Amino acid sequence: MSVSDNKGAGDTGGIEESAEPATGSHDGVASEPAGKFAAILALPNDDPKKTVAVALALCLVCSIVVSAAAVLLRPAQQANAELDRRKNVVEVAGLVEGNAVEASEVETLFDSIERRIVDLESGEFTEEVDAASFDQRAAAADPDLGVGIAPDADIAGIGRRSRFAEVFLVRDGDDLQQVVLPVHGLGLWSTLYGFIALEGDLRTISGLKFYDHAETPGLGGEVENVAWRSKWEGKFAFDEEGGLRISVAKGAVPANAPDAAYSVDGLAGATLTSRGVTNLLRYWLDEEGFGPFLAKLGESGPSGS
Question: 174 lies in a domain?
């Protein structure tokens, strides 16, 4: 009995002892990464392994935070960009002045403007694309919505353009008061994006504004200067025969110069940016750009419809 009991106890102990290593092995696998991390943290602060490990951990955490912030903030950024675009449209049309304007006022004024999509090749209004979701920059790169520009015709230096463009019609009742056209082209360091507003006669410039560029501050960046922008008001883009004449001069334009009505003072120290503005306007107001549209709009009479 004593021998049997001892044997049973010995057998039980053997089973328990054989089970313990299995349990210990499982816990060891689960805790191995934590153990390695603890071992790294236990190293002296000046140990290269610890320095590299901590740096990698910080990079990982920071990248996760930045990525999450970018995703979470994207809707707000897109909404702000669209609000800024709308503000530029109403500002170049002369419906607001200065920066102290509420977002609600911008939205109200923008909603009073007629938005239409134009087929640039035919010059006709089209419903082929939705004005509410149309992105002209993205469309230019799209194989179906964009077209390449022949080098000899690409005076704006943009390479490709969209087949369509969004235009903005400002009316007083049924009469067309202004048409606002998006324009862009190469300056010295960047592509300049902006809007030009023409009065109802489709000849007289009522405003020009660039809202996105990376030209040199104090030089080409003066395209944003309110004083320089005001010089465009009342200038003629076209002569009475319909010839495209507008340009940025090299230096100041004498009041008695033969082309004074079609020329704007150049930007001091920014010859290439000034030339870029001339080229982009002549591209977009001519046959490759809005020329066919402006011709058809003029044929439709005061209503511009």
Answer: yes
